[in-house]
Specification:
The complex is a heterodimer of chains A (about 250) and B (about 325). By secondary structure, chain A is of the alpha/beta class. Chain A is about 40% helix and about 25% strand. In chain A, a hairpin with a 2-residue loop joins strand 1 (about 1-10) and strand 2. The radius of gyration of chain A is 19 Å and the shape is globular. By secondary structure, chain B is mainly α. Chain B is built from 14 helices and two strands, in the order H-H-H-H-H-H-E-H-H-H-H-E-H-H-H-H. In chain B, helix 2 (about 25-50) packs across helix 8 (about 180-190) and helix 2 crosses helix 12. The radius of gyration of chain B is 20 Å and the shape is globular. The chains are: A alpha/beta (about 250), B mainly alpha (about 325). The complex binds adenosine-5'-triphosphate and magnesium ion.
């Protein structure tokens, strides 16, 4: 699905990501773990075009997408969620989601001014997409609820739905289970499996080891911006370099 | 039902606006109201770029002045018929907005506001100092009244009131179209956060620029009306305090709502009028009221009402379903 070659990002003197090469495999759950500040979010920012890499290449299905803007990469089918989900609190959950499919529509100012039939059609498509995405994440019943009034876990699901409404091939999830309780974490893991079962490739960053170990097909470990290990959960668990990186870290054994 | 109520509300406002000249005691009231409408129209524009798109443009009054001076200069110095000059007011402001937007919109958040604050001041200075074009501090005197269109003449305060009212209604209707469409949702996604919007495939620059140009088009149009209504222009109309006034209308009425600028733009001038007897001290009263409002009613009158209604509607057994 996606291949990364010698990717690097420097912030002044700090190498947030350095010389990382890896592959995100189609139809799998690819996980990225590492201590705080290891460069995981920066890695996502590079893949999704939010930040430009200072070195290296990113290939999406063989096509070089290095240096494209985030919106261009989104149109190519890469969608993401953020560590914290910012919703428009004064609007309903459904209203927050309708814009998710905007990138697949073409209506512009002229359509708006003349009230074109294309605009009406596309607005209906976006609305249907939003409903479908809400149903997929199991939140159809709170569609009319004000975004300000939903729980942390529902917020995470809405973020998933927003990413799904863009019709992605690859979804990048940044700490999808951050700040939710263990029971809800299991529910979110279930949802991620469902996404993969529906043909969407997933790459996620997570600190919750139990979740990662049971969910991921492949894990990449970052430490100080460098890839220190990669493999199946069993391989990662047995890897001495990983154990070293996590020793003394607050996340050990979580 | 909710939709119907909203529609009914708008129709009531429309009727109120139409009969106002018959209720108004004298021409002075008509003039105050017409001036308020002109500023509401400009505030609708500011609300699009600030309230809906999240980019606080402090040069807004400067663009209104550009529209006004377009009409003033063309009619007085070049004898261009009023309506031709008037039709150009919006596009000239929007064209200038294109060039200023393309530079300023690269900046985010406060930096954009500070940049546009400077742009607004430069516009003011240009108007004040470029005497051969703008007549400088003397101002432009003797702008012709809007010329008759067929049987319609615009020489009485009442006729001018209806003219201004007409453009306000059209401006509101078009704004309603924009903000309730996919385009409006695109703007709101940008207001919510650049990063998330961009990751949803929204081209930030293109959409911000569009919102900005539409917004200053409204300012230019309002400026053109102002020129035809007041018929005298000075550099003062470009002053940033007018942008602050419009901001106040937005905040009081409800930022990022359609009705907000209307409500704010109509109530605030009347309140300040009635506090006139306090003279300079009136802001001692008005200031604290505004501060309290921003703290306790951050979404303004309309925003708070909409949220309350949405909550009610979301309750499974709420009476909101009536
Ligand atoms: N825009 C930026 N400018 C400068 N330094 C940055 C920037 N973004 C991130 N960094 C630095 O890069 C390093 C990696 O940060 P990053 O957010 O990618 O870590 P992370 O692995 O996601 O951490 P966490 O688990 O806490 O989310 C950190 O040292 C951080 O301070
Ligand atoms: Mg992070």
């Amino acid at each position: 699905m996606l291949e990364v070659r010698n990717l690097g990002k420097r912030f002044g003197g700090l190498a947030a990501v350095s010389d990382v090469s890896t592959k995100i495999e189609t139809g799998k759950v690819n996980a990225i773990i590492g201590p705080n500040g290891a460069g995981k979010t920066t890695f996502f920012n590079l893949l999704s075009g939010v930040q430009k890499p200072t070195s290296g290449q990113i290939l999406l299905q063989g096509r070089d997408i290095t240096g494209l803007r985030a919106d261009q990469i989104a149109v190519l089918g890469v969608s993401r969620t953020f560590q914290t989900t910012v919703l428009f609190n004064q609007a309903s959950v459904l209203d927050n989601l309708i814009v998710g499919h905007r990138l697949r529509t073409k209506s512009g100012l002229l359509d708006v001014l003349i009230g074109s039939s294309r605009l009406k059609r596309e607005e209906q498509i976006c609305r249907d997409k939003a409903h479908a995405a809400l149903e997929f994440v199991g939140l159809e019943k709170i569609a009319t609820r004000l975004a300000a009034d939903i729980s942390q876990e529902e917020r995470k699901r809405v973020a998933f739905a927003l990413a799904l409404a863009t019709d992605p091939q690859l979804v990048l999830l940044d700490e999808p289970a951050g700040g939710v309780n263990p029971e809800e974490t299991e529910g979110l893991a279930e949802l991620i499996r469902k996404m993969v079962a529906n043909g969407i490739t997933v790459c996620l960053i997570e600190h919750k080891m139990n979740m990662i170990m049971s969910l991921a097909d492949r894990i990449m470990v970052l430490n100080y911006g460098e890839k220190i290990a990669e493999g199946t959960p069993a391989e990662i668990r047995a890897n001495p370099a990983v154990i070293d990186a996590y020793l003394g870290s607050e996340h050990a054994g979580v | 039902m909710m939709r119907l109520n909203a529609k009914l509300g708008w129709i009531m406002l429309l009727v109120l606006g139409l009969v106002f000249p018959f209720l108004a005691g004298n021409d002075y009231h008509l003039t105050v109201m017409s001036t308020a409408y002109i500023y509401v129209l400009a505030t609708l524009g500011l609300n699009l770029v600030t309230g809906y798109t999240g980019q606080y443009n402090l040069a807004h009054a400067g663009f209104m002045a550009v529209g006004a001076y377009t009409v003033g200069i063309l009619t007085v110095d070049y004898q261009v018929p009023f309506w031709i000059a008037f039709v150009l007011a919006g596009p000239v402001a929007a064209l200038l907005g294109f060039f200023i937007g393309i530079v300023s919109l690269r900046l985010k958040g406060h930096y954009f506001s500070i940049f546009t604050l400077c742009v607004g001041y430069i516009l003011f200075l240009v108007i004040e100092k470029w005497e051969s074009l703008t007549h400088g501090t003397v101002g432009i005197i003797g702008i012709p009244a809007p010329s008759p269109i067929g049987p319609l003449t615009f020489d009485s305060p009442r006729a001018l009131y209806y003219l201004v009212f007409f453009f306000l209604v059209v401006g509101l209707w078009v704004m309603h179209r924009i903000v309730s469409s996919l385009l409006g949702r695109t703007f709101m996604a940008i207001r919510n956060g650049d990063d998330l919007a961009e990751s949803l495939g929204i081209n930030l620059m293109r959409n911000k620029l569009l919102a900005f140009m539409l917004s200053v088009f409204y300012a230019g149009l309002a400026g053109g009306l102002y020129a035809g209504f007041v018929r005298f222009l000075g550099p003062g109309i470009a002053g940033v305090e007018h942008t602050f006034d419009m901001t106040m209308y937005m905040l009081v009425g409800g930022i990022g709502t359609l009705l907000g600028p209307v409500l704010g733009g109509l109530t605030v001038p009347w309140i300040t009028q009635t506090l006139q007897w306090l003279q300079e001290y009136r802001f001692l009263v008005f200031g604290p009221i505004l501060v309290l409002l921003v703290i306790f009613v951050p979404h303004g009158i309309v925003g708070s009402f909409i949220a309350w209604r949405a909550r009610k509607a979301a309750q499974p057994h709420g009476s909101g379903h009536a």
